[in-house]
Queue: 2 jobs
Job 1
Amino acid sequence: MTIIEKIIANHSGKTTVKPGDIVDITIDARVARDFGGANVVKNLEDNGLGVDDTKKTFFTFDLIPAGSDQKYANNQHICRLFARKHDIQVYDVNAGIGTHLAIDKGLAWPGSSFISTDSHANILGAIGAFGQGMGDQDIAAAWANGSVWFKVPKSAKLTFTGKKPDNVTAKDIVLNLLAKFGASTLLGYSVEMYGEAIDKLSLSDRITIASMGTEMGAIIIMFPPNDEVLNYSEEATGRKIDPVYADDNANYDMAESVDISSFEPMISRPGKPHDSVKIHPEEKIKIDSAFIGSCTNGRLTDLRAAANVMKGRKIAPGVVLKIVPSTDEIWQQALDEGIIKIFKDAGALVSNAGCGGCANGHVGQNGEGEVTISTGNRNFPGKQGKGAVYLASPATVAASAVAGYITTELEVPEKPMEFVIGGAETKAESTRKTESASGNNKPVEVEGRVWFIEEDNIDTDMIFHNRYLSITDVNEMGQYTLDNLEGYEDFAQKAQPGDIIITQKNFGSGSSRQQAVDCFITLGINAILAESYGAIYERNAINAALPILQYEDISPLKLTTGNRIKVNFETGKVENVSKGTSIQAKPFSEVQMDIYQRGGIFK
């Protein structure tokens, strides 16, 4: 078996498992954040459920630790009251990012299982653990039962050859991989990384790469634990750990060799993490702001890399640099080493530990028309604000903040670029995608008007923007469906109960927000059909009894928006009633049909 197959088997009481098997997995650590935490509490209380094991159950407040948003502050208080009532540990606003705390505090370890309302919980693959982001219904079910159902994914094996160039960082590695594989080639895979260059990667490097597995569409990126990781986890847990490695004869659905010697420093252009290109300093793309932090690049080594570039230098006039360490312990270490002083002397704003600008967090948002270079993991439109966001490594972000334009650490000019008074600076064009909507009903066969959205990689920020994430009342969600999507801002007003949505690859990529499913249910959408789905979105839809189906080729239907479509969930047959055409989609699994017929996972 592969690494993930062994971990799942170990946690499901099975001797062996294979891709496609659906099993119940015991979860070693079950986490809710300030994002989604109040909804987890609401799901438990509304359904009269208790907590299975409070010693394995945690709250982490990392998205809006400052509580600067009134609704988030209220949600945090709801979680604190619930924690006091049930004796649940809270890693509060002074602690840092929950997935990092899971590693540093020994909540997770090589071979363990971990879930969170954080869509980047698969960061735990950095230590060879099973980690998954899930919606608030999934987390509530795990808190109540101690386990969740999970479909064993296919595994892919990437073997790296050659020597890593010295100027290529861990962030550059994952940006090169995104350029090679895109957002959907590895969709639904557990990806294992091998090779001499991989063996040499530090824990921080592994965290950076693993944290962007979500952006590659992967279920998780798994690193076989090396000695550094094992020693770190054993010190964090205070016990000897028996790590999990793949068998020599493990079966992989995909296996590729990757020449790491060809990798180079890269940036991702605004709108798409996988739109990664080589850095061209000569283009002098002017920036307004810079951000260093997030679960991808907020470790001590990341801060050191930035400090090495910024020491003795000043941030370019007119540029704002915001820095957010990933945990409070890292913040303190940076203070002790003099790194914080370097940042402050350069003119940066250093905030308390947390997620920062990611998901419009407490520090690091940008405004409309603003151009930002960021170490975050996503640059979807609206993700870090209304401006345009480039993704890069900490060294590149620091160099660009000093230069005033996007450049590498080896090409920082002696004199920075300055804004011209009354002049026009270079601005990046932010790309916005189009998207679609759909919904569900109880019958096994449904018919309705179709919305045909010919677009890949439609993300959850497009479906339900993060500015509405504090909403917990499902009845309020429908009105905001797709209003962050160019061309579909009035979708909620035009959609009719019974409509069906058909779109393309990787629908629902992005965050773990349950609202991106519930908003369609509120509108009475009959079903959603896509070529593939984001892994968390697929789970959220199934658990909420929103019918979703997967097809291989939609072209025989000869679809046009407005056609009437008939879909059978039991057989998978899809008919275009308007044109007399049909295709065969994948029917509901037994688990999906059971949850659908019950009206949701809690029924």
Job 2
Amino acid sequence: MTVSEAPSGPASIPALLARNVANHGDKPAYREKEFGIWQTWTWAQAADEINAMAMGFLALGLAPGDHVAIIGRNRPQLYWSMVAAQMCGAIPVPLYQDAVSEEMAYVLDHCGSRFVVCGDQEQVDKILEIEGKVPHIEQVIYVDKRGMRKYDHSRMNAMADVVAEGRAGHHRFEAELAKRTAALDYNSTCVMLYTSGTTGKPKGVVLSNRNIIETSKNSSEFDHLRPGEEVLAYLPMAWVGDFIFSIGQAMWTGFCVNCPESPTTMMTDLREIGPTYYFAPPRVFEGQLTNVMIRMEDAGRFKKWLFDKYMAVARRVGPDILDGKPVSGADRFSYWLGNILVYGPLKNTLGFSRVRVGYTAGEAIGPEIFSFYRSLGINLKQLYGQTEASVFITQQPDGQVRADTVGVPSPGVEVKIADNGEVFYRSPGTFESYYKNPESTASTKDAEGWVATGDAGFFEEGTGHLRIIDRAKDVGKMADGSLFAPKYVENKLKFYPAILEAVVFGASRDFCTAFINIDLTAVGNWAERNNIAYSSYQELSQHPRVLEMIRGHVAEVNQSVAADPMLAGCQIHRFLILHKELDADDGEMTRTRKVRRKVIEEKFADLIAALYGGKSEIYTETEVTYEDGRKGAIKATLTLADAAVAPAQRMAAE
């Protein structure tokens, strides 16, 4: 669709809301669990709240073109505030709720936000801490009143009071609100979302109503999403995926968005809701599987035997049954029995009993992990996307689901591979621009609308499926000219439950080395079963038996990497287990858990030098940030270990 073409249906999110009220007015639109009780709002009730909220914003002076920052956990009122801001002609800018105040200061200053909507006292405190750096903030609105009584309310209002003001003054504001809402069209800005900032300052990605609505429409039709779907809204509201699932697709299809009570109750709330449409990054699926395997290790002998017996059946025939492929009657009967005894109860425990479509994206997921969920009959698929694409670039069609590809181009999306292997796309979801950054916009999106993803990949012959190798900027060469693709190796390492994170080095060097973070839950449970005492993450990470376990995993990964002639040079020769988890608060990762390689290379330069210098141990001190914002230091002596390298035929990159 070109910019000049008019849409065939509603041209804005508020227009979709009005359509849903007309078509599904009495059906559930939002649920939230608070104080242990689920509360439900129908589409008509949600629209009434949003209208009153929008008029309350007008009463406070919200002007067209203003940016409204929104910070907090997933709550209906925060989603409503995004739509209410749009109705006023303003632009919602959700921020990561776990961001520290300095990170928020940059975004708030960059977008020039006059209004900030906060979920609770914690977020308000962050704003008050930085208000001297961001003087243009005029109004702070908070949803949860707890702890707010003694604050200075001269520029601060409870959301309930704003809504009440809107209702009381509706005669004054209805005409103006209707005028502003009617002025919205496909070219109006729908939302501005900031990138994770792996290589520098986050960039504000401007997405129009066309981007969000067309992408929501195409992706919903791809998976036959219907008004009766149930989704769980638990991912960061500042992430484009949550905006598409909880605003875009929800508004397009009219399905129900469910908000958990808190991150700690998320798994319980997931089981209670039983979503039919579900998304989680690989880390969530890996964590759930780790917990399952830990519990089975502690289970009785008969239960463990039953689990192993029927999971073997599931792994053999489960994916084929899910894809509708031929399976013998005996295998079907065994799988049916396994579903009664094992798979059904397990899916119920995980909260996946009703999942009709599940997605994972963001990082590669281990083939064994991916196959585990599909073997249970869960239709888990992969997609590939980014903020600048309004999420969807490729998706996996039913019946063509594999762990090693990210599928075919999504409806309406064109994908091409440049001569250097970089993936390019263009689609109705292609972002309008980077806010206040024409140089980056021009370098990312050309005049014909093609966007550089920054990822290297290729299309498989015959299937047309896209395979992603690595970030294009991270793909390099070893000293001997062979290909260096760190993420390829890192993802293989992270397939092991004991390994939470890995960072591989080796560009322009003679061999590869790695930093490894252990998973405290998985390794802690293993240590308990093996009578290994420890008092901290640091102590456990440096235990000799933990080191030997990780050494074994690295050796197995090297065997796997050696089987690929093009990437055999990426085998890990030396490694160490870090004494701390890589943390977004310390700047080592983004809020979406992506590694900031340059930061790590600079911060731990002494450790990298020791790995390549042949040392067997090194003393180091590392600055860390505590939850309350205070700085401290961790001191440790780390063991540097050699890894077994498999013989391989190495192929020089062309």
